[in-house]
Write a structure and sequence with these properties.
Layout lengths: L2 E6 L10 H6 L4 E6 L9 H11 L5 E5 L1 H13 L6 E4 L17 H13 L1 H13 L5 H11 L6 H9 L3 H6 L4 E6 L9 H8 L4 E5 L6 H4 L1 H15 L1
Parallel strand pairs: 1-2, 1-3, 3-4, 4-5, 5-6
Helix pairs in contact: 2-3, 4-5, 4-7, 5-6
């Protein structure tokens, strides 16, 4: 019988990017896509409490980018009440720190945040292009992401993204973990895959070749194949 899986969305683009993947995983999971909480401020604990209260226990947790980071923290918080974790293009830290160099430079993120504060519409368009950079048809993918966007983008969400650190949670969670990274991701360096594997040797970490940050849209088949191989090992 298929296990329940909740997929948390990323920042800004809403649930639409996860719909094709959710449908493709139907043979393996009973998937529910969950929107992120409405971020009024970058309060990690309040965000986790909101998710913990809203989401049922005993379900796999997963997510794309920011959603995967929050899923990781919630999985560690729930412990044995979470049977497994699946993240997609999710870093342990989104911005560089001395202890975690495989991330976006802080100055680059700060410039993006400032641009968003001044012109959200134009910056969201740029964000969709960054998500698509590395895809075969990156312009078409970018247009698709923007046309279907139904998310709640916000400065508070960006601030939360910059504040999150899932390193301890990745080490603490003892259930099965699958972390997928895109080889041509413009937002999460592909070197993150090796860093995550070193941080949590028990996890399964894989690269999806020829994929952008929006691998959940453009490489659904490869993502599902990786999930199938992972689940076969877990039997």
């Amino acid at each position: 019988m298929a296990q329940p899986l909740i997929l948390l969305t990323g920042w800004g683009l809403g649930s639409a990017p996860l719909v094709p993947l959710a449908e493709a995983l139907a043979g393996h999971f009973r998937v529910r896509i969950e929107a992120l909480p409405a971020f009024e401020r970058a309060d990690i604990e309040l965000s986790l409490e909101a998710l913990d209260d809203r989401l049922p226990r005993g379900v796999w947790l997963g997510g794309w980018s920011l959603g995967g980071m929050l899923a990781t923290l919630l999985a560690a918080r729930r412990g044995v009440e979470c049977p497994g974790l699946l993240t997609l293009a999710s870093n342990a830290r989104f911005t560089v720190s001395e202890a975690w160099p495989t991330a976006m430079p802080a100055a680059t993120f700060a410039a993006f945040r400032e641009a968003y504060a001044l012109n959200p519409t134009a910056t969201l368009k740029r964000f969709a292009m960054l998500c698509s950079q590395g895809a075969v048809d990156f312009r078409g993918l970018s247009r698709r992401l923007l046309e279907q966007a139904n998310g709640a983008d916000s400065l508070a969400g960006l601030d939360l993204l910059a504040a999150l650190d899932t390193r301890a949670a990745l080490q603490q969670f003892t259930g099965p973990q699958l972390h997928l990274f895109a080889a041509d991701d413009a937002l999460v360096p592909v070197a993150t895959a090796a860093a995550i594997q070193a941080l949590q040797p028990a996890a399964t970490v894989r690269r999806v070749e020829g994929a952008s940050h929006a691998l959940v849209v453009e490489q659904v088949g490869e993502v599902v194949a990786a999930v199938e191989r992972f689940l076969e090992v877990q039997k």
